Amino acid sequence: MTIDLRSDTVTKPTKGMLEAMFSAPVGDDVFNEDPTINALEEKTAKLFGMEAGLFCPSGTMTNQIAIKIHTQPGDELLCDATAHIYNFEGGGIAFNSGVQAKLIHGERGRISAKQVEENINPSFDWLTRTSLVSIENTGNRAGGSFYSLKQMQELSDTCKKHKLKYHLDGARIFNAIVESDYAPAELGKIFDSISVCLSKGLGAPVGSLLLGDKEMIRNARRIRKVFGGGMRQAGFLAAAGIYALDNHVNRLKEDHARAKRLSETMSKLGFVENVLPVDTNIIIFNLNDKLIPEQFVQKLAKENIKATGFGRQAVRLVTHLDFDDNMLEKVETVLKKIQ
Ligand SMILES: *Cc1c(COP(=O)(O)O)cnc(C)c1O
C-alpha cells in the first residue's frame, strides 16, 4: 500500500465514477455537441448562480483564460503574493496576456478590500492600469485558508467602485464552502468569473470549469481554442465531473478532519518546529534544524509514504479521497518513529 500525501490531485477514479464515464453520451465539443459536457457546464453554472460555464483541461487554463478576458496587454492585476496564478502557472500572466502582477501580502493568503484600495494605481499615463483583482479560495500555498463571504463581498464592493474585474481561483472552492454557511450560488453574485477544479479534492481525473456571464463564456470558448484546449469527445471526462459534484462534495469534511488530526499529531513531534493552522485539507509544517525536508521525505518514502518539500524547511501534506483512516494511523505510526 502506497500512501500519497503530495497533493489532492493524485486520486484515481472510483468504480462508480468509472461507470459513469463509460456510459456517458458524447459528441464533438468544438461543435458544441457533447451532451455530457453541456450538462456539466449548465449544472456547475447553475450551482454557482452564473449564466454559463466552460469545461477546460486544467485550472491553469481556466485562470489564464479569465485573466486574458479581463485585461489588456500592459495592464496590472492584483493578487496575493502566494497566488497560484502568479507562482505556479509558468509566468502565464505575462506570457499569455502581457499583464504584470502587483503582489499584496495578505493574511495567510487573504487580501483585504483596504489593501486592494491602497494598491490601485491612479489613472496617469505613466502608471500601469489596474484592471483585475484575483483571489484564491482556499489558498493553496497559503495552507488551505479560506475567505468568509463577507470578506469576498467587501472586495467585490471595492472592485465595483473602481471598475475592476474580480476573479475567483476556486480550485478548492468546495473545501471552503463545506466549512462555511453560504450557498455556492452566493458567489455568482459577487464575482465576474469563477474557476472551479474537478481534479483536486473532488477526485475527477481531469478538468476545471470557468464560470461567468454568457458573453464572457462566448469569448472564453474562443480563447480556449487559441490556447489549444478545444477538446472533442471529452464528455467521458465531464461525466466524471458530474459524478464528483453529485458524490464527492460533502465528504470533503472527512479530509479536513483527517488533516486536523494529523496536524495535531505533527505538532507534538520532536523534529517539527511548527505546524501552520489547518483550516481545510492542507497541512504545511516546518522542520527544525535536526532534519531537512529531503531527509524527511526519504524517511517517509522508505515506508511507502509520499510527501514533498515546500520550500526551505517546509513540507506540505494534502489529504484527499484516497486517504482513509487506516492510512492515517499508519502515517501517524511512522511519524512517531522518526528521529
Ligand atoms: C491546482 C490549482 C490550480 C490549477 O491547477 P491545474 O493543475 O492546472 O489544474 C489553480 N489554482 C490553485 C489554487 C490550485 O491549487
Commentary on this structure:
The chain is globular, with a radius of gyration of 20 Å. By secondary structure, it is an alpha/beta fold. The protein has 14 helices and 13 strands. Helix 7 links the parallel strand 5 (129-136) and strand 6. The protein has two domains: 15-247, Type I PLP-dependent aspartate aminotransferase-like (Major domain) (Aspartate Aminotransferase, domain 2), CATH 3.40.640; 251-337, Aspartate Aminotransferase, domain 1. The strands form three sheets. A seven-stranded mixed β-sheet has the order 2-8-7-6-5-3-4, with helices on both faces. Helix 1 crosses helix 11 (235-247), helix 3 (59-70) packs across helix 10 and helix 12 packs parallel to helix 14 (325-337). The model has no long low-confidence stretch (mean pLDDT 97). It binds pyridoxal-5'-phosphate.
Report on the biggest sheet: 7 strands, mixed
- Distinct small-molecule ligands in the complex: pyridoxal-5'-phosphate
CATH homologous group name of the largest domain: Type I PLP-dependent aspartate aminotransferase-like (Major domain)
Rg calculated over all Cα atoms:
20 Å
Strand content: 15-25%
Q: What's the helix and strand layout?
A:
Blueprint: E1 3-4, H1 15-22, H2 35-47, E2 52-56, H3 59-70, E3 75-80, H4 84-87, H5 92-97, E4 100-104, H6 113-119, E5 129-136, H7 149-161, E6 165-170, H8 173-177, H9 185-190, E7 193-197, E8 208-212, H10 214-226, H11 235-247, H12 252-267, E9 272-275, E10 282-287, H13 293-302, E11 305-306, E12 308-309, E13 314-318, H14 325-337
Parallel strand pairs: 1-11, 3-4, 3-5, 5-6, 6-7
Antiparallel strand pairs: 2-8, 7-8, 9-10, 10-13, 12-13
Pyridoxal-5'-phosphate binds next to helix 3.
